[in-house]
Amino acid sequence: MTVSLLVGTVRTLAQFMDNPGEILTVMNIRMLARSGGGFTTCLVLRIDPEGTMKIANAGHIAPFLNGEELTLQNGLPLGLSVDSTYTESTFHLNLGEQLTLLTDGVVEARCESDELYGFERTAAIARSKAETIARTAQQFGQEDDITVLTVTRKRTERSLIAQAPTSALSTDLA
């Protein structure tokens, strides 16, 4: 039920708000009103066509950019405090770079000897494809849901037009 509430809320808010921090603030208020004392971590990310990323974090695992964990301001998880604020961090995703987002099911995978997969192992494979990261954590010892998303910025026709030199455009009307 909580996931349904949050997914519906973010879909609605994203139509009217551009700022991830503002979106998390409203999501937090909704969570407080309906969660019955529960909480959840959440990360809201916006990437524009030029590669600028704005990220606000409510206690979630930070994404990895080209295998390196991004340093983010971390707010409280949603549903804990009415006074929570969510600071936005800005980064750039260059052409060909990979951004990896994942849930705690990866770092909290636990093997038979009770050892956690952990952040160090996660960072070591953060450049891999999403399927590889998820499968590796699952094989190590899945205890929780595992979600991995990788985003690679590619050159598009739109970016080619935006990068065209001005001298290539004719202003002669004769």
Q: Which ranges are low-confidence, i.e. pLDDT below 50, for 5 or more consecutive residues?
A: 163-174
Q: What integer value in Å does the Rg equal?
A: 19 Å
- Helix tally equals 6
Number of domains: 2
Kindly name the structural category: alpha+beta
State the end-to-end distance: 65 Å
Major sheet details: 4 strands, mixed
* Share of β-strand residues: 15-25%
The quaternary state of the protein chains shown equals: single chain
Helix content: 25-40%
- The whole-number mean of residue pLDDT values reads 87
Shape: globular
Please give the number of β-strands: 8
How are helices and strands ordered from N to C? HHEEEEEEEHHHEH
Detailed description of the structure:
The chain is α+β, with helices and mostly antiparallel strands and 174 residues long. It has two domains: 1-62 and 72-93, no CATH class; 94-156, no CATH class. 33% of the residues lie in helices and 20% in strands. The chain contains six helices and eight strands; from the N terminus they run ααβββββββαααβα. The chain has helices spanning 2-14, 20-34, 104-107, 118-125, 130-141, 157-162, and strands at residues 42-47, 52-58, 64-65, 68-69, 74-75, 88-92, 98-102, 148-152. The strands form two sheets. Strands 1, 2, 5 and 6 form a four-stranded mixed β-sheet that branches. The chain has a four-stranded antiparallel β-sheet with strand order 4-3-7-8. Strand 1 (42-47) and strand 2 form a beta hairpin. The longest helix is centred in the N-terminal third of the chain and has 15 residues, at 20-34. It is globular. The N and C termini lie far apart (65 Å).
